[in-house]
Specification:
The protein has 497 residues and is of the alpha/beta class. It contains 20 helices and six strands. The strands form two sheets. The chain has a four-stranded mixed beta sheet with strand order 3-4-5-6. The protein has a two-stranded antiparallel ribbon with strand order 1-2. Helix 18 links the parallel strand 4 and strand 5. The chain is elongated and about 100 Å long. The model has no long low-confidence stretch (mean pLDDT 85).
């Protein structure tokens, strides 16, 4: 080890830098992602109604900053369609300055929300929603390529097929170089050398020729400005966090490694603040580009940083060369990624036959909403709400009430099993024989739990009905939580109180 290294690193059994093989993998994956970011960033700029360089600068700064500030190594963050849709009205109605101010405020919101622990809400997203999310993503990635295949020269189609064939067959020869990069280079050389006229990256918009310069947004710093941008900034913050956290969880599953979701949430905010001051349109986690990165073998922050760095170099230094890349090559890359993203096992007849109907319904609802709206965040919210309804309905039917009457006929013991909450408590009142039971009734809740005011109100209703017939009720077997809730709320939920 070099003498100038700290003693801790000189005596470490592992070098402080990645192995050459890892460096090569990370660098090549970053290059592929950088190339794939160009047309997408330009397209998202068009959606937002701003100059293409605004989206490209955002992609560069988001990726480079999140590489240091984020909590999920190998995840790509850049300008995205979801964010573009949110901020588009600001740019259209108020101008670029207000859009930049919105991005910066959204970043502040994300830092605050991340610090408050909003990432912990991810544990409430069930697996069926995640599967639907992944399948919907695969469909969206595929359908997003259809415009690039419509009303184009016939040569585009064989080029796409050739690109797909290269990416499928090349890994059988060697995996030293990512197959998507090989396909992009080969198809570019073929189209340029043969003079084949097909749509290229350059047709999507002019690439920037100089570095972005930091500055403040050109808006009046007044309360009125804040009231204009705050609703859009909050929406952008929530959408960005949701997509980023879902992407991070997906990478966790793919790589079988954990990530710091709180750090990722705060990091997204920091990246958006920096991006705003550099004149970018903001962004969040990019699932498509992240899939390309991970499928190319990347596992560290280096690939994320290099994706942004290479994008900057490609746009400014090699802009004329990059402009000649045929869109067919990038379409082929994204089609293969979309096929690999879709969870085909989840839709096999054997899997659907074994899976509970409720789980399948949740997955289908998530996919349908995402595809219909084009918004992954909306689909996740609707899917999660559907899963909650399915779960509540399922648990409500697990509550059982059995009665055992003493031989002397002096009392009856009702044993309640299952969880009592708003969905199950409503039926509880009708499980008792108020007229035929003996004078003393015991309700045993040893194997039950009281979870909300609805269940306490139901127990009060049972007690009241027996009391109206001159019979006494004793409730036993309450655990500590249930006893505390019952003691606090019992008798306090009627109209008289």
């Amino acid at each position: 080890m070099p003498a100038w290294l700290p003693a801790r690193l000189r005596h470490s059994p592992r070098p402080p830098w990645p192995a050459p093989k890892v460096l090569r993998t990370e660098a090549l994956a970053g290059l592929v992602v950088g190339l794939a970011l160009i047309p997408e960033a330009i397209s998202f700029s068009v959606i937002a109604g701003v100059d293409p360089k605004i989206g490209l600068f955002a992609a560069c700064t988001m990726a480079m900053v999140i590489a240091f500030a984020g909590g999920r190594p190998a995840m790509i963050s850049a300008s995205t369609g979801a964010v573009a849709l949110v901020v588009a009205p600001v740019a259209r109605q108020h101008g670029l300055g207000y859009l930049i101010a919105t991005v910066i405020l959204a970043g502040v919101f994300q830092v605050v929300l991340g610090s408050l622990g909003v990432a912990k809400l991810m544990r409430f997203v069930p697996r069926s929603v995640m599967v639907g999310f992944v399948n919907a993503l695969g469909i969206l990635l595929f359908t997003a390529q259809i415009p690039n295949l419509h009303d184009v020269p016939w040569a585009v189609y064989p080029l796409v097929v050739a690109g797909l064939a290269l990416m499928v067959l090349f890994p059988r020869l060697t995996k030293a170089v990512p197959a998507p990069l090989v396909a992009i280079v080969v198809l570019t050389v073929v189209t340029v050398a043969a003079g084949i006229a097909v749509p290229t990256v350059g047709d999507k918009g002019e690439l920037p020729s100089s570095l972005p310069v930091p500055g403040l947004p050109d808006v009046p710093f007044t309360v009125h400005t804040l009231t204009v941008i705050a609703p859009y900034a909050l929406a952008m913050a929530l959408v960005g966090l949701m997509e980023s956290l879902m992407t991070a969880k997906l990478v966790d599953d793919l790589t079988d490694t954990p990530s710091d979701k709180t750090r990722e949430s705060v990091g997204q905010g920091i990246a958006n603040i920096v991006t705003g001051f550099f004149g970018g349109m903001g962004g969040c986690g990019m699932i498509g580009q992240t899939m390309i990165n991970v499928k190319s073998g990347a596992r560290t922050r280096l690939s994320t940083f290099l994706a942004g760095f290479f994008l900057l170099v490609l746009c400014i230094v090699l802009g004329p060369v990059v402009s000649h890349i045929p869109m067919a090559a990038l379409v082929a890359v994204m089609v293969l990624v979309s096929v690999g993203t879709f969870d085909w096992h989840s839709v096999r007849p054997a899997t659907l036959k074994r899976m509970p109907v409720g789980e399948t319904v949740v997955m289908a609802v998530t996919v349908a909403v995402v595809v219909a709206t084009g918004n992954l965040s909306v689909g996740v919210v609707v899917g999660t709400l559907t899963a909650m309804v399915v779960f509540a309905r399922r648990v409500a039917h697990l509550t059982q009430v059995t009665a055992v009457t003493d031989p002397d006929g002096g009392q009856v013991v009702y044993a309640v099993t299952g969880e009592l909450f708003f969905a199950s408590a409503n039926d509880l009142v009708h499980r008792f024989d108020y007229a035929g039971d003996p004078p003393k009734v015991v309700i045993d809740l040893t194997d039950a739990g009281v979870w909300d005011a609805s269940s306490v109100a139901a127990l009060d209703a049972v007690t009241t009905r027996y009391a109206a017939r001159g019979k006494t009720v004793e409730i036993v077997g309450l655990d500590q939580h249930s006893a505390r809730m019952h003691a606090t709320l019992s008798g306090e939920l009627t109209a008289g109180h």
